[in-house]
Amino acid sequence: SSGCSGSVSLSAATGSCWSSSSSSTHQGSGKSAPGVGGGGVTWIMPEFVGRAVLADYEFGQTLGCGTFGVTRLVTHRRTARPWACKTICKASIAASPAAVSDVQHEVAILQHLAGHSGIVQLQAVYEDERSIHLIMELCTGGDLLDYISRFGRLSEAEAADIGHAMLTTLQHCHRWVWLP
Over 70: is that where the pLDDT of 116 sits? Predict the structure, then answer.
């Protein structure tokens, strides 16, 4: 179990939304449109089918939980670099075309906005029979409210630096507005 109450259940060993000893490798139906592929599996993002997340990453502790999945700490097996893996249980979104579209848009937007220091970087995407795995930059240290709570009031210079960083990130997002 993921350690999150009220959310989908994920295997502790694999980060997948099922508990099984079967492999997380998968064979896709090629680069077809989303839909039912071989073996009756529904592929939501077929361009990312055919790669095994467990071959590349080792799953660690749970970082957070959401309505459709869990975010876990993962370590890249070759480089030992830590990342965050957002695992979305396909069973929890498959019945909702809006939820499927939201996941597809999230990936497209993160890919499109890649390269800016104020935007989390998407490293890789994997899809298997039961889950979609988004491997993203691991952001540590908490959010701005955590920072202010920890260190107290910001100096004028700190507030200006943070405001500048936020506004340049927002400007980058609006400069590259793109909706699939």
Answer: yes
